[in-house]
Write a structure and sequence with these properties.
The complex is a heterotetramer, with two copies of chain A and two copies of chain C. By secondary structure, chain A is α/β, with parallel strands linked by helices. Helix content of chain A is 23%, strand content 26%. Chain C has a domain of 147 residues: Glutaconate Coenzyme A-transferase (3-Layer(aba) Sandwich). The N terminus of chain C is likely disordered. Classes of the chains: A alpha/beta, C alpha/beta. Chains A and C meet through α4, α5, α6 and α7 of A and α2 and α3 of C. Chains A, B: Keywords: Transferase.
Amino acid sequence: MDKRVRSLAEAVSGIESGASVMIGGFGGSGAPIELIHALIDRRPRDLTVISNNAGTGRIGLAALIDAGLVARMICSFPRSSDPRAFTQKFLAGEIALELVPQGTLAERIRAGGAGIPAFYTPTAYGTELADGKAIAEFDGRPYVRERWLKADFALVKAHRGDPLGNLTYDKAARNFGPLMCMAATTTIVQVSHLVPAGGIDPEAVVTPGIFVDRVVEVAAPRQEEELVRAEARYA
Amino acid sequence: MDKRVRSLAEAVSGIESGASVMIGGFGGSGAPIELIHALIDRRPRDLTVISNNAGTGRIGLAALIDAGLVARMICSFPRSSDPRAFTQKFLAGEIALELVPQGTLAERIRAGGAGIPAFYTPTAYGTELADGKAIAEFDGRPYVRERWLKADFALVKAHRGDPLGNLTYDKAARNFGPLMCMAATTTIVQVSHLVPAGGIDPEAVVTPGIFVDRVVEVAAPRQEEELVRAEARYA
Amino acid sequence: MSIETQPDRRLSNAQIAWRAAQDIADGAYVNLGIGFPEMVARYQPPGREAIFHTENGILNFGAPPAPGAEDWNLINAGKKAVTLKPGAAFFHHADSFAMVRGGHLDVAILGAYQVSENGDLANWRVGDSGVPAVGGAMDLVHGARQVFVVTEHLTRTGEPKLVERCSFPLTGVACVTRIYTSHAVVDIAGGRFVLREKHPGLSFDALQAITGARLHVDGPVGDLVVPEL
Amino acid sequence: MSIETQPDRRLSNAQIAWRAAQDIADGAYVNLGIGFPEMVARYQPPGREAIFHTENGILNFGAPPAPGAEDWNLINAGKKAVTLKPGAAFFHHADSFAMVRGGHLDVAILGAYQVSENGDLANWRVGDSGVPAVGGAMDLVHGARQVFVVTEHLTRTGEPKLVERCSFPLTGVACVTRIYTSHAVVDIAGGRFVLREKHPGLSFDALQAITGARLHVDGPVGDLVVPEL
C-alpha cells in the first residue's frame, strides 16, 4: 500500500475535460496551489469546480478560471481581495455559478463522503437559495432538503502525510480538506512533509488514509495569500 | 470559563427521573464507569439510556439497569459477555428496547449535535428495522429516512481534558464519545488527566470545548472489561 | 429629519459595538460576522472573556498578530490573520457548522441591510447585479441561541433599516433576536419591534419617525448611554 | 444425502476463510464480521497486505497481542484485543460508518443464516424470541464495494442456506456479491446464483441438491481446491 506519486503531473493525471473537481482551501489557507497549477498545465476544459471561494489574484483557482478551463463553480463566497478572474467570466456569462451557503456546502460534501444522499437543514429556509428545494417540517419547524455533493477528483493540501494517505493539516488550513478527501472518487493530496508509515501518531490523524488515493510531496508549498500580496501570476 | 467540577456527585447533579442520558463506550472501551456509578447513587428513575451496548456483568451500565433505573434503551447491540442485567429486564417486559443499526445510531447522534433533524441512509432498507419509516428514492436507489437523536445529558469518558472542555481520547475508547458530547443539552465528561488550558495541542483536540459542560478528573478510572473479568459488582 | 448630521444623537460604529459587547456573558461562545461585527471583540467588559468561533475552524482565537508576524494559515472568516489563546482548537468545516447549526453558539452578531419586525434578516445581497456571495450568514442566523444585529439605524440615503417587511433578498426568516443601532436597542418579540433602549437625545416620536415599522414599548425603556470611544 | 458426514467433500471453516482470503487484493480496505469472518485475516496470501477496518474506530489493526498484554481500549468490533500496524488511525463512530456507508471499503465479509438468489442476506436474527441485537451488519452490507459471505453450505440440521427467498429477518436487500461455502463459490449476478467453483468431490447435481435455489453456470466452473489447514 503505497499511495505516493513522484511528480505533480503524475498526481493530477487522469483529470480530463468535463471532470468535477473539489479544491480545498478557505481563502488562501489550504489552497493547493501547486496541484492547481499542475492541473492548468493539463488544460482540461469544462471543469466543474467545487470550492468555498472562487480564487483571488492571478494564481491558483483564479488562474484556472482565467485560463477558461472552468465551466461551472459551486461555492459559497466567490469574492476575494482580487476577484477579477471569476467576476469577469461570470459577468460575461462564461461561467455558471451554484451558490451554496457555507455550512450547507460543507455538510453536502460530508454527506457525499458518508453515503448520506440527502439531509435536512434549517439553513436558507425562506430564502432564494432554497427555491425549488423540498421543504419538510420536523417538530414544528421548517427545513430544506439538500443533496449530497460528490466529485470525480479532490485536490487537497495537507501538512504531513504518510504512504498510506494518513494526513494532518496546518491550523485553519484544515477547513474543507478532510471533507473533500471523503467525497471524491480520486483524492489527490499535496503534503508539505512526507513521513514514513507510523510517522503520524494514530491519535493525531485527521484524515485516515482510506479517504486518500494519491500523495505527492511539495516540500515548500506556496501560500495563496502571500502570492497575491506579491502580485504573482501563473505563467 | 472553567468547566471543572470537584466531585463525581457534582458532575451528575441535575440528572432527574425521566431524563434521557447518552452513555459513551463500545463494550468496555470508553465506558464511563465512575460517572455511571455516581448516577446510580442518585437513584433517578425512568431513564432513557442511549448507548451502543446494554452493559455487561454487574457494574457500569449493567448495574444501572439492574437497579431498575432504566425504562428504555436505545442501542445497537444489547448483548455482551455477561448480559444478564439487560436480558432479565427485557424478557420480563420491564425495559423497552429501540434497536438501531450501529452506523445509523452514530449518525443520528451526530445529526442531533449538528442541527440536522433528519437524513437518508441505505441502511436497514427492506428490513424490519425500517418498518414505519419514510422511504425515498435518490438516483434510483431506495433510502430510509432517520431522525436525529438528542439527549438531556451525556456521560462520556475521555483521556485528557482542559478547563475549557477540550478533550482527547485513548485509542478506540474514542468511539461514540465525540458524537454524544455534541448531542446532549448537558455534557458531562470524566477525564483521566486534567491539564491546564493550553495543555492540549489545538491540532490534537478531538472534542472542542464548546461541546462540553462539565469536566471531572478521575485519575485512575476503572476499565469495564477488567472489572467484569474480576467479577466486580457495583455496591 | 437631519438626524444623521447630528453626531451627538447617534452612536458611532465603535459605540454600537461597545453596547452589544455589554450583553455578552462571561464564557459565552460567540461568532462575529465579517467587518463591523468584528469590532465587538474589542469591547469585552473587564472580567468577562468570550470564546470566539470562526467558521473556518478555530475556537478561542485572539487579537491580530503584530504586522509582519501573520501566519496566513491562522486566519478568521474575514481572511484576517489572528492569534490563538490558550485552550484553542482547530476543526474542519463540517464540525465548525455543526457548532453553528447545532445550537452550540450562544451569540452570533451580524450586520444588516434590513431587519423586519418579525426578525427576518436581509444582509447578503441588495440586487440582482454583480456576483452574489453568501458565505456562512445563512447558517449562522439559524444556529446561535441569540442572533444580534449591529447596524446604523438608517441607510446612507436615509431609509429605515428596521422595516415591516424586507425588500432585499432574505438571509433568514424570523431569526434576529436583538438589534443594536446607532439610535436604539430593539428586541424582536412576538413578531414585533420592542424598544429596550433609546438614545437620550432623541424623543420616542423622533425614533419612531426614522423606524420603518411600529416600535412597541413593553416594560421600561432605558437610556442608550455609551462611553466616548 | 449424507454429505455433512463426509469431511473430504466439505471445507472446514479455516479452509473457507482461506479461500475467501485469496480474493482480497493487496492494499484492499476490508471489514471482517465478528466470529468466523475474522479468520480470513490469518490467510492473506504472501506479498499481499489488506488494511483492516473495525467499526469501533481503527484502521490498520493487526494480530491479537500476547496473552496478558491486552489493552482493553484497543479492541475490535468483537471486543477482542488487537494491536496496531504502522500507519494506523483512530476515529469516532460517525467517521467510521462514513467509511462504511460512503463506499470506501473494498470488501466486507460476513456470516449468514441465509442468502437468497437476489443477494438478500439474513444474518442477524432467527426468530422473535430472546434479545435482538444488530450491531453494524446492516450498515456494512450497504457500504462495501463487495460483500462476501462465508458460511457452511447447509445448516446444522441440513437445511440449505442458499435459498430462493430468505425466511429469516433480513439484514439487507440485494447486497451480497459472492458466497464462499463449505462446498462452493457462488456469485450473485443478475438476481441468480452463478456457480464459480465447486468442491471436486461433488457432482454438480449433488451440489444443486443441497442448494435451495437454482445454480446457474455462466462460464467455467473451477475446482474448489484449498490446502490442508
